[in-house]
Design goal:
Strand content: 5-15%
Low-confidence stretches: none
Number of helices: 13
Strand order of the largest sheet: 3-2-1-13-10-9-8-5-4
Largest sheet: 9 strands, parallel
Structural class: alpha/beta
């Protein structure tokens, strides 16, 4: 199972000081957080994609390429790649290039984003959001798997004899997660292709997450990719920790109360009771995160949101120390207990390459056998 962090890259004033970081400070802070994630033994760093204030990560591949050059083991991902408003040709090229530079340490999460105005900024209609997601990904999927593509659709100019470059590393495209909070069509899309499904799992109660994950698992099996238990599931989560739970609540409350997404709404106590948000001790974070398996089953990736709502970088790095030293080692051990043998591990470039080679060898053996039988008949 993979553990990591994801960032939305918001530039939010610290409510305790009133000061907001500059864009440069926030970008540099995201890099420092990624480097710290590798240092403390996490597996994944994922960045969002936004094209409007108060967010800074408008170019995920630029940031991830820089981080790739400064890390050795960390898997680089996105917490949203805007499949609706980005040209799928450019996604195919940009992430294949990143895949080569990072020696395969790349996957990505497709999503529609949560900023309505981004659609007209990039010449699209938000009312076509689902249709854009379906059509654009269908093209992207082909671009990574076919050397020459002829294609015509509704939302971009046709392609004739087109080859995207560079080709995926070792002929194996980056693994794709389809991220959604509330859209069953996206769970269906992930299942159709046999890709991963990532449920943000931050704002919604457990029962909603259960329904979305169960839909994806059942449809994954329907399309013949394996059993429901073999489907590839990822979850988000949100934590703030201190050694003493009362200290965590006291320190985080002013940030929660004015957070851009959920501030000025339910109380901290109501929100933690109704959603996966955990504010407390490392042990409380362990217990609540382990409970995710009760409604999502055995899953492959757990990402935490930790650098938001104006929290200073120093505080976030302290959180990562707690996560890496006291929380994740226990979660690894506990999630591994009683994990059924048939549940797959989280995909990596190495595992995908191994599967591709095995499939190719199987095909070659089948072809040789057919040729021998034909020769015998002759």
């Amino acid at each position: 199972m993979q553990f990591g962090i994801f960032s939305v890259g918001d530039v939010t004033p610290d409510p305790t000081t009133g000061r907001a970081p500059t864009e440069r400070e926030r970008i540099k802070a995201m890099v420092a957080i990624a480097l710290k994630a590798e240092e403390v033994g996490l597996d994944v760093f994922a960045t969002g994609e936004h094209h409007n204030p108060p967010f800074v990560p408008s170019s995920p591949t630029t940031m991830l390429g820089y981080i790739a050059a400064r890390t050795e083991r960390l898997l680089l991902s996105t917490s949203t790649t805007l499949i609706t408003t980005n040209d799928p040709v450019k996604i195919a090229e940009d992430y294949a290039m990143l895949q080569h530079l990072a020696d395969g340490r790349v996957d990505l999460m497709m999503g529609r984003g949560n900023t309505g105005p981004v659609y007209p900024w990039f010449g699209q209609d938000i009312r076509q959001g689902i249709n854009l997601a379906v059509e654009n990904y269908a093209l992207l999927h082909r671009l990574w798997r076919e050397d020459v593509v002829d294609w015509e659709g509704r939302f971009r100019t046709p392609l004739q004899g087109f080859t995207s470059t560079p080709r995926p590393l070792d002929g194996v495209p980056p693994f794709v997660w389809h991220g959604s909070i509330r859209s069953p069509e996206i769970a269906e899309q992930a299942a159709y292709y046999g890709d991963g499904f990532f449920h943000n799992n931050i704002f919604w109660p457990a029962e909603h997450t259960r329904r979305m994950v169960e839909l994806y698992r059942s449809r994954y099996a329907h399309y013949g990719h394996g059993t429901p238990e073999q489907a590839i599931v990822g979850l988000g989560g949100q934590v703030f920790m201190r050694k003493n739970s009362q200290d965590a609540v006291r320190e985080f409350r002013p940030y929660f109360d004015v957070a851009p997404v959920y501030g000025h709404g339910p109380s901290l106590e109501e929100f933690t009771a109704q959603t996966p948000l955990t504010v407390g001790s490392p042990q409380q974070v362990i217990e609540k995160t382990l409970s995710f398996r009760d409604y999502a089953g055995d899953y492959q990736r757990q990402l935490f949101l930790m650098d938001h709502a104006g929290l200073p970088l120093k505080t976030v790095l302290e959180q990562l120390d707690l996560l890496g030293e006291e929380v994740v080692p226990v979660l690894r051990a506990e999630f591994a207990k009683n994990r059924p043998a048939g549940v797959p591990e989280a995909p990596t470039h190495a595992s995908l390459l191994g599967a591709a080679r095995k499939e190719a060898a199987k095909g070659a053996a089948k072809g040789a056998s057919a040729a021998e039988q034909e020769g015998a008949r002759a």
